[in-house]
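Researcher: For the record, we're logging two predictions in this thread. I'll number them. Prediction 1 follows.
Model: Prediction 1, sequence and structure:
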Amino acid sequence: MKETLLQVDGMSCPSCIRHIDSALGQLAGVEKVEVKLREGTVLVRHDASSAPLSALVDALHDAGYESRPHAA
């Protein structure tokens, strides 16, 4: 399992948390989704072979959010 931290634009309320959790949680290979609204980040624990970074970004895009790997 891999942990990927994403910067997500457009999150503004608790409803966004549920929406993002649902969008990523339905992907095969995603084990855990942790949304931090204040920081604008999402930590995803996932199997990189069945849920690669591109799939995470695409799922968020389809849900209406732009995202990218978080610059540490």
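Researcher: Logged. Prediction 2.
Model: Prediction 2, sequence and structure:
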Amino acid sequence: MKALTTILLLLLSNTFMTLAWYGHLKFNQMKWTSQLGVVAIIFISWGIALFEYCFQVPANRIGFKNYGGPFSLIELKVIQEVITLVVFSVFTLLVFKTETFRWNHIIGFGFLVLAVYFIFKK
């Protein structure tokens, strides 16, 4: 159960992270944000990123072996990176419809999934 909870919290965390890091690139299409300067955008993104931490920190504490979780620190990091790529890919395809994935992107993502395999191999 701790593994599933950790993964779900990481999924939520990475959703907010992706919104904070890349969502602002669409702000110019929204009337209320189109005239904001970079400092205002930083503060908005920072506010969104707060929610990332609200999920990331508990995910790591619940999932980490030293706190009774099932994952080593390295395993947690690799899981988080793969979740980041999945969330980023979905976000990119849904929000930035002009972006496309090429074969080399897919192969690179495949190698990262292989990294998960090798990290978890005993």
